[in-house]
Amino acid sequence: MLKARFLHRNAASVFWIAAFVILCLLSPMKASAAYDAWTTYEVDCHSLVVRESPDADAAGYAKDGTQFYVSKVSGDWLYTESIAGTSGKTISGWVYAPLCCKAGSSSGSTSSGSTAQPSTLQTASSGTVTVTAPVSVTMRAEASAGAEAIDWIGKGTVLTVLDRSNGFYKVKFAGQTGWISSNYAEASSKASGSSSGKASGSSSGSSSGSSYFSGKLDWQKSYAYAEKYCYSPNPNYRYYDYGNCMTYISQILVAGGLPTTKEFQDETYPFVRIENFVPYMNRTYGISKLNNPAASSIEAGDCVLTDHGVHIMWVLSVDGSTVYACGNTNNRWYYALDAEDIDAVVKTSDLF
Hints:
It is built from five helices and 20 strands. Helices cover 18% and strands 32% of the residues. α2 packs antiparallel against α3. It has three domains: 64 residues, SH3 type barrels, CATH 2.30.30.40; 94 residues, SH3 Domains (SH3 type barrels), CATH 2.30.30.40; 142 residues. The relative contact order is 0.10.
């Protein structure tokens, strides 16, 4: 009798263990601990590349704030069957997850991983504010987190408030007027000096480099570096398979004598991301960014943005309406660009 009871209990235990294992196997499992499938995400960068596979060339681009439904996750890559592209067509493919966020959680800042404190200037429609975003804040065409991104303003920049609406401040920066989130700007008693597009000072907590930089780069050294490493990237730096253009440009400028700082160095955002390089150069050296530039405003030594602002190249020379530039993401040397194909120019030629 005891033996029969023992066998009965063992059989019951085996049954429940087997049932638990089968249930686990049949239950849906998330493909990534960090990102979720069957979830709506939105683009949280200036322009997001959509690829047929994670290692494929770009199939299209999606602008900041565009929402899309994710059906599969593979590591740091999200798959969507339908996302609105900048060309007006719907695209399916893989996008890089760190440049996205779950729908509704977009903050309007180009930096992630930190929590900003709400602005102390919540009721004012005029006055000055200081940008407090970890690296830079996005300036948008309208007072909405999903509105078009038109520029980035670096941490520490002082701006004059023109108006306030829906948790956003209307400001003028680098010759353009737009809106920034009040979560990334706080009231300031400092005199405004950056609304004209020139730097008001270096960002808090980091060296700007201006105290030991003469303001003139060595053209020959930058040119020689650009030529040497256009087709074979410098092995002393990390190479970014999905876009090495920004780090190559940074190395060219450093080779010419531009100082590295706590911000501007390898493995930090401004060194490898266009959206952080632009405001860094503006607030540190007073370098302007001109959108939709005419060929006459582009010079050798400038940086030009193409492909909806997600690619950057260094200008070698200009001949009429043709701009000749280099870049090593696609190994291009003296690559001809028409002025109409250039989205913006960053006036780094002012440093040569």
